[in-house]
Amino acid sequence: MLFNIEHESEDCIIGYVVPDGYSSLAQLRVYSGGQLVREMETDQARPALVAAGRHETGKCGFILDKVSLPGIETMTDLEIFDNESGILIYRRNTGNKIKKKVLRIETHLYPLRRFDTSLCRLFQYYSLGIERFGGETNAQLFLLNKSDSIFLSGRIIYKNYQKYIDDIFSIFITLQDPYYELAERLIILKSLNQQKQSFLGERDKMVFAPVVRYLENMQLDDPKSVKRGILAMPSKILMVLANPVIRQLTTSSYDEMPSGLPIATALDMLSLCDVIGFRHDMESFQRAAFLHAGGGGMNTNLPPPFLMVNRLGDLLKETGVADTFLEKDIELYQHVLAAAQVS
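Request: output the structure for the sequence above.
Response:
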């Protein structure tokens, strides 16, 4: 999906939304004060989209003005969402938003959504969990040009969007001890089929499906079952779980194994980050992130780790059963942790 705002003023907003469907039209929902005030369909022609083969009719534009939305000039908190994807298309700047573009690169399978929700309120435009969207939509999020106040977060492959990020977005990132990150992932994936709502996108569900099936026969609260299950893991399962952070920061795909000098490459990337934090000290990370963004020292009460995470993480660390396929993530984490302690 592509979208952007072409014009905005007190009494008129013009933009376009190109849906994924070649013949479909985007359905938009307009809110003010948190209340739905209008539903509309894009109906303005954009001939260039037809010429480029992007859309059958080109009717992807929309106009909101005093005629189509009476009282628009008084709606200081106006928001427009795409109905199908739920993506925020436009959010009116109330004048007190932070003038920065910030990306929080999510490295955890379980997202820090409560933190993101608190921070995104300080920005005009925001989009959370962007790994759920396709590459084209994500690239569009980085290229929105009508706002200098943007907050994005997601477990994206950094290398695929590097040209849109470097020197434009401030980067925030948190790292977790790889043993405890693996423990958290195993616990989440073990219970994935029992969850009524999943924060994972469709692609992630397909990628992790073999792991979910394999974990059905593992008892994560039984040390013998855990050790036996990990030692017997087929290579295709290990490939999914191996060194997730190194792959996220240095490769072009989660299916790609790191090559060359991945530790050095990852450290180079992390040197570009404006705020680096650790899951075991989220208070310090939150304080640094809010201060860098310009939002003062606000802190968010994040939920504690899953009850089993520490116990399972301790087991993985003590037994070393995961050392082989976490080797590079472990080395990277030790480097970053040592650097943080020195500074």
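The chain is about 40% helix and 20% strand.
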